Amino acid sequence: MKARIQWIDNAKFLAESGSGHAVLMDGPPEAGGNNQGPRPMEMLLMGMGGCASFDVVHILKKGRHAVSACIADVEAERADTDPRVFTRIHLHFRITGKGLAEPVVRRAVELSATKYCSASIMLGKTASITHDFEIIEVE
Q1: Mean pLDDT of 60-77
Q2: Which of 43, 57, 60, 119 has the smallest C-beta neighbourhood within 10 Å, fewest atoms?
């Protein structure tokens, strides 16, 4: 896996993935940025949420469960001093589907957290990570 980060100007950087996708990162105005993109630490948090969501949906679909939507809200706290690592992260999943049983969804969330989501497992070295979920039933 590779990535290239190119400084554009001020606090603005273009990040390009090895798979050919790009995203603009920018800092806040007080740090010389123009607020034109997410901060690098926000990207890290979004990456973790994406990794965990991918796992949960994949596990449910692989089990042939009728999942139709998954939204993960991620909240984090950071250390007050440098390095300002994440110290606490909470993921709240809202999983929509038909006939989704609570134990099945709980197991998918647990498997992501403990076995499959590399990002969560890495960030768990410095942060306390918690998860919860709600199931939204559709007709």
Answers
A1: 98
A2: 43
